[in-house]
Amino acid sequence: MSKRLDLRYRTSSENDHDRAKAIFSGAILVYRSLPAMHELVQFLREIIIREIAFSDPCSAESFLGSKEFRNRASAARRFVRDNDEVSRLYKKVLQEAGVDISALFFDHFKLRFQPSNKASQTRYMRDLPAHRDTWGSNVHSQINWWAPVWPVTADRTIGIFPALWNSPVQNSSAEWSYRELIKDLKGEKSKDYPMLPQCLTPPAQNEAVPVIINPGDIMAFSGAHLHCSIPNRTGLVRISTETRTVSLHDLKFSRSAKNVDCDSSISHFDWFHHIEMGDSLAEYYSNKSGSF
Ligand SMILES: [Fe+2]
What we know:
This protein is α+β, with helices and mostly antiparallel strands and 292 residues long. It has helices spanning 16-23, 35-52, 60-64, 66-81, 84-96, 134-137, 178-186, 248-252, 281-287; strands spanning 7-10, 28-31, 104-106, 110-114, 143-148, 158-160, 209-211, 218-222, 227-229, 238-247, 273-274. It has a single domain, classed as Sandwich (Jelly Rolls), CATH 2.60.120. The strands form 2 sheets. Strands 1, 2, 3, 4, 5, 8, 10 and 11 form an 8-stranded mixed beta sheet that branches. Strands 7-6-9 form a 3-stranded antiparallel beta sheet, with no helix packed on it. β1, α1 and β2 form a beta-alpha-beta unit. The protein binds fe (ii) ion (FE2). Fe (ii) ion binds next to loops. Fe (ii) ion (FE2) binds at residues 131, 133, 227.
């Protein structure tokens, strides 16, 4: 069991097979200084500066006050989620990394704010505790893509627990239900259903290894990696972007991470849609009579 992060830098594109082989054995791939990623960062910065209405959005929470910051950051998040230019640039980024996007399904293109001040946090903008995305999706061919929009530091970034890549962690994947989450989100009273299954025995925070990459870089890692937000107490907001993908090539050839501790009984292929045509991976799966 390695406690070191298997971080591999890529300066040119690679095919889906090679990427999957590295990622599903636990490597974290960093595609450095992609021209399209620089374009995407620039475009996202313009949106954020306009929506936050502040030239230095990373320090905006201190100047605007928490409520105003939350409202403006939420508006920026919504704008990015439905924006055609963001979508076009993301596809270009993935193609520059060598991804065959004709076989690619994704969830959303997300902007993430991780405020430093507790009062600025919301359900969608906060320190995320340790989790594996696959506890929720139960799709073990899922790849996460993550990139900073403004520079990050060791105390304000994403963290990965390399020592727990292959080690079971007690978690609530058997009980957690997406349907319950949606009911909770639509409900008027309690809004405390967890967004994803949680660790029942959380690891020590100092086991998380912070990953620092530059704006213009993008990293890809298995959705089965245990990861978290490094708790942000820096006084500055972390602003990053992310998406999750599943390639039909990986499904067809059964390329995936090993399931070490996910006990979910439902696989959420329905969370992923074709990046160009929009059809659901779940429909694709059922039309093929349960196989790829
Ligand atoms: Fe995650």
